[in-house]
Specification:
The complex is a heterodimer of chains A (546) and B (439). With 546 residues, chain A is an alpha/beta fold. In chain A, 50% of the residues lie in helices and 9% in strands. Chain A is globular. Chain B is an alpha/beta fold. Chain B has 18 helices and 11 strands. Chain B has helices spanning 2-8, 12-21, 24-36, 43-60, 66-83, 88-118, 125-128, 133-142, 145-155, 160-163, 171-178, 184-221, 241-251, 268-276, 310-314, 339-348, 388-393, 424-431, and strands at 233-237, 257-261, 301-305, 319-322, 326-327, 333-336, 353-356, 395-396, 401-404, 411-414, 417-419. In chain B, strands 3-2-1-4-7-10-11 form a 7-stranded mixed sheet, with helices on both faces. Chain B has a 3-stranded antiparallel sheet with strand order 5-6-9, with helices on one face. In chain B, helix 3 (24-36) runs parallel beside helix 5 (66-83) and helix 6 (88-118) runs parallel beside helix 9 (145-155). Classes of the chains: A alpha/beta (546), B alpha/beta (439). Strand 3 (364-369) of chain A pairs parallel with strand 8 (395-396) of chain B, so a sheet runs across the interface. Chain B: It comes from Aspergillus sclerotiicarbonarius (strain CBS 121057 / IBT 28362).
């Protein structure tokens, strides 16, 4: 992160340092050494004892275990043992050695399962155990049987809180600390991961640029180990960084596209080229990628989208897209007179920053939340939307709520349809397709939805109602108990949702994106020109084959 | 001590309490200021307050003349309605009270006519005819007092004078006692007692309206099982006691999933309180529903989502059940802000939209200017004081209501049953009289 393109990034670097230590005292993570491979090794001598424990304890907690015959019990114990070994191996692989990607691990565990005594059953259990091992990765330190039972309970509770329709999206919890990250992960990437998790670096393009800049520093600091070539080893080295980043927050489409391009560039480096030259050529590649695909692309898009704005227009936009911001500022600089109506949503309130920037630049800004969509759209003449990605079937994948705005623009009762214009760099195009917002999405922490009540009392004066009921409670307990309880209860509870995790059947859902049907989008403005949404797959093919 | 806490925050409870002691004009002013300060909000609270106020207005009016009563109610009603024109239920209740008085007066007059034809024997029976307990029972039964009370009127439509706005022309009244000379002394006496009865009857009628307001949610909830099937995914929006009771009734028998959009920023706290089952803070709501079990206690999975996620989830939703602020005669509705996009998203996904609403929310107003129906709320809920610098620079909007056109609604469920939006005008004409539409 030597010279970030985005000015917001520079400020964010310094701003983000405090949260990292703050996150340290987390519940899940027992204090453990800085080197993550160490506990895995320590665990090895304990293994047989734990295995026995586990085998002995296994039938007891499971209710159906009582009816097992001794032969079955033996078989089960064997399977357990195999599973444990596989898990242990998987753990060592993910932390210490080469990650190899999921494919390699699968191969390893499958081989193990096949050679083990369990046969087909063993294979299954090994695969399951491997999965389990991956999930339990964060709390590796607590290896006691009781803790495991507690963890299982916790997990079950956690699963109850997951919305079943979105069950496939609750993979891993977002990383809470940098503890447990591989030692290969570069400090710049460590910091970036936390920034992305905390939405300090937010937005598809910003995340893409920040990732590339961080990777540039990784490449600068990289030296090829003996016995391998840069083209071979750097890719695996980068995949550690990528794995870490994706545990902080799932990678965006633009990040994925950029990483793919970078890996392609790495693999196409001639092994005979000296390391220094190769590294500098890669850094040049990253710089030119950022310049071509994002910086200049944004300028081109802003220029051509600003042409669509005319005097007297009322532009509606949703949340805070950087490219829409640039477009509006460009149009304003060209002296066009128009009004901007920003629609914002909980819990990120990204539109607030956009409103602030635009208002400071002197634009006429109106701001409302999702509940005001139908009012804001009433006198709109154009809708400008940013994108997280454009799918190959022409649908717009963007911040949740975008679809509502686009729909309102198209379905305005009794009025003419408002044109919906999407501003999107081609780096955000993907060959994936999406029909609804459920199959592909990102689940954010549901606790973000629990409102933090603003402090009720702004003055330093003591609340006159507070001490009085307490005294009466002491004096006449029986008479005044009911009203006192109600008053104290109303004071103590911040939000009724605070204890949502304890109340059964209550679930909170905080998804990040939704999919806007292609028929709501009139035009996609890209650096390659303005297209209908149906042209997205063609442009994507062109831009990737180049 | 509880009385102190009630007095601290003026609202429906304090108003109802003061209604008994205060003189009537003070009470009217009281309600006006409460409505203006929005210390009484929500359709039902407004309706209850208005109904009680109308009851005291009528019981305080010593006159026995129907015209005077109407005048008095109109005067009070106009003032209260002008205080908060967007609370349309206030006008609805006033109109219904006016309709009650007119009905009673008409029935009375018919009684007079039949009396003058039949002779003096039937004198004591005719005014009692309406007090017939079976008739009162039938009121309660179907909840539509108009339709049943109209029966004698239509059957006696042979007398053309009584049909058309008798009350606006006082001449039959003057001619009436003068027709038979022998009956004139008793007739006048009788007329007096009739008029006294009018007041009592109207008070009875208002009590029935108040009863209806109390029972309406349960009556609507009784239809729940006809509309919710097992394993359904139902989406709803903001906290509405009518919707909650509707869902709770169904939850007693069937398992389904509720997706609840929170309606930030105006009603999200109440929504959170409703779904988590924690008592809401304002004592305006601290009535029976505060002690109600939440849906989650009945084993119903409730998923809370921000309003923005409605479109994303709509493809999974089977039914959208919405509460409303008021329903207009054209079948459109004025409901909490954000309802319109939800209804629209449902239409796009071909998901049926069901609106549950008491008949008292049904307003005879036809919207020509939708914007006039929309109320704008506290802007600090959208941008708080911590962003004070922004407020100077930008225009922040916080609409409280949305107008939802009738074509976005598939079904209305009122305490009278389920209706298509196109049928609503019939129910309106059943409940309000034409001459009262402009109070």
């Amino acid at each position: 992160m030597a010279n970030p393109v985005d000015p917001a990034l520079t400020s964010s670097v310094s701003a983000s340092q405090p949260p990292a230590p703050e996150m340290q005292p987390s519940v899940q993570q027992p204090p453990q050494g800085a080197s993550p491979s160490k506990p895995a090794k320590q665990q090895t001598p304990k293994q047989p004892a734990k295995g026995k424990d586990g085998a002995a304890a296994a039938p007891a907690p499971s209710g159906d275990g009582a009816a097992l015959t001794p032969a079955e019990l033996k078989k089960k114990a064997k399977a357990d043992k195999a599973a444990r070994r596989a898990r242990e191996r998987a753990e060592r692989e993910t932390t210490g050695g080469a990650p190899g990607g999921p494919g390699g691990q699968h191969a390893a565990s499958a081989k193990k399962g096949a050679s083990g005594p369990g046969g087909a059953g063993g294979k299954d259990s090994a695969a399951a155990a491997q999965q389990k091992g991956q999930k339990q990765l964060p709390r590796r330190g607590s290896a006691q049987a009781t803790a495991q039972v507690g963890a299982a309970e916790l997990k079950k509770k956690q699963e109850e809180k997951n919305v079943s329709v979105f069950g496939h999206l609750y993979g891993q919890q977002r990383r809470t600390t940098i503890a447990g990250a591989g030692k290969e992960v570069h400090p710049a990437v460590l910091a970036l991961g936390l920034q992305m998790r905390d939405y300090v670096v937010c937005g598809s393009s910003a995340r893409c640029v920040a990732t590339l800049l961080a990777f540039k520093r990784v490449i600068e600091a990289y030296t090829t180990p003996l016995g391998t070539s840069l083209a071979r080893h750097l890719t695996t080295h980068l995949s550690h960084q990528i794995t870490y980043l994706s545990t902080c927050r799932p990678l965006s489409i633009s990040q994925g596209n950029a990483i793919r391009a970078l890996k392609l560039a790495i693999s196409s480096i001639d092994p005979s080229v000296p390391e220094a030259t190769a590294k500098s050529s890669l850094c040049d590649f990253i710089d030119s990628f950022i310049r071509e695909k994002i910086t200049v692309a944004d300028q081109v898009i802003a220029g051509s989208a600003a042409q669509k704005i005319q005097d007297g227009d009322v532009i509606v936009t949703f949340a805070g897209s950087s490219i829409v911001k640039q477009t509006l500022l460009t149009a304003h600089k060209q002296g066009k007179q128009f009004r901007v109506s920003i629609i914002d949503s909980r819990p990120l309130f990204e539109g607030k920053n956009l409103a602030r920037t635009l208002a400071n630049a002197g634009l006429d800004v109106q701001y409302s939340l999702v509940n005001g969509i139908s009012h804001a759209i009433k006198d709109a003449t154009k809708v400008f939307l940013g994108a997280h990605a454009m799918t190959s079937n022409g649908r717009l994948y963007s911040r949740v709520g975008t679809a509502l705005v686009a729909m309102s623009a198209k379905e305005r009762a009794g009025g003419v349809e408002v044109p919906v214009i999407v501003c999107c760099e081609t780096v955000k195009f993907t060959d994936r397709v999406a029909l609804d917002s459920i199959v592909v999405n990102e689940i954010a922490d549901a606790d973000e939805l629990v409102t933090i009540e603003p402090v009720q009392q702004l003055t330093g004066l003591p609340d006159p109602t507070a001490p009085a009921p307490a005294e009466t409670k002491k004096g006449s307990k029986a008479a005044a108990s009911a009203p006192v309880e109600s008053s104290t209860a109303s004071q103590s509870t911040g939000s009724p949702l605070e204890e949502w995790k304890e109340s059964a059947n209550l679930q909170l859902l905080n998804i990040m994106y939704d999919v806007t049907p292609a028929e709501y989008v009139d035009m996609v403005v890209t650096e390659m020109g303005s297209l209908p949404p149906s042209a997205v797959p063609i442009v994507h093919r062109m831009s990737t084959n180049l | 001590m509880p009385s102190n806490s009630v007095a601290l925050t003026p609202g429906l409870a304090s108003f109802l309490k003061s209604l008994k002691t205060n003189p009537i004009d003070t009470s009217i002013d009281d309600l006006i200021s409460l409505l203006k300060r929005r210390q009484i909000r929500h359709s039902r609270s407004c309706a209850t307050a208005t109904a009680y106020l109308m009851r005291s207005v009528i019981s305080a009016t010593r006159t026995s003349d129907a015209n005077k009563l109407i005048e008095r109610v109109q005067y009070a009603g106009r003032r209260v309605m002008a205080a908060q024109p967007r609370e349309m239920v206030v006008g609805n209740i006033v109109r219904r009270v006016l309709g009650l008085i007119r009905d009673e007066a008409e029935d009375d007059r018919e009684g007079d006519f039949s009396l003058s034809e039949a002779g003096s024997e039937s004198q004591p029976q005719t005014p009692r005819a309406l007090d017939d307990p079976s008739e009162v029972l039938s009121y309660r039964h179907d909840g539509s007092d108009r339709s049943s009370s109209r029966q004698p009127f239509t059957s006696l439509s042979a007398t053309p004078i009584s049909m058309f706005s008798l009350l606006s022309h006082p001449e039959p009244e003057t001619s009436l006692p003068g027709t038979p000379a022998s009956a004139s002394p008793s007739g006048r006496l009788l007329g007096h007692s009739h008029n006294k009865d009018i007041r009592a009857e109207v008070l009875d009628g208002i009590n029935e309206i108040i009863d209806e307001l109390g029972q309406v949610d349960d009556q609507i909830a009784a239809y729940a099982l006809e509309h919710i099937h097992s394993n359904e995914i139902i989406l709803t929006h903001t906290s509405s006691t009518t919707v909650q009771k509707f869902l709770l009734k169904a939850a007693a028998k069937r398992k389904f999933t509720v997706i609840h959009a929170e309606s930030y920023p105006n009603n999200h706290e109440a929504t959170h309180a409703t779904i988590s089952g924690q008592a809401p803070k304002d004592d305006d709501m601290l009535s029976t529903e505060a002690f109600q079990k939440p849906l989650i206690a009945l084993g119903i999975t409730v998923i809370l989502i921000p309003d923005s996620a409605v479109f994303a989830l709509m493809s999974r939703v089977n039914k959208v059940i919405l509460g409303t602020h008021s329903v207009l005669a054209n079948g459109g509705l004025v409901a909490a802000a954000g309802t319109r996009v939800i209804a629209r998203a449902a239409k796009v996904h071909q998901t049926p939209v069901v609106v549950v609403s008491g008949v008292y929310k049904l307003s005879p107003v036809y919207p020509f200017d939708f914007d006039s129906l929309i109320e704008y709320g506290d802007v600090s809920k959208v941008i708080g004081y911590e962003d004070g610098d922004l407020v100077d620079q930008i225009d922040v909007q916080n609409p409280l209501y949305d107008y939802v056109p009738a074509e976005l609604v598939d079904l209305y469920i009122t305490n009278l049953g389920g209706h298509a939006p196109s049928y609503l005008y019939r129910i309106v004409s059943d409940h309000y009289r034409k001459e009262d539409i402009n109070v």
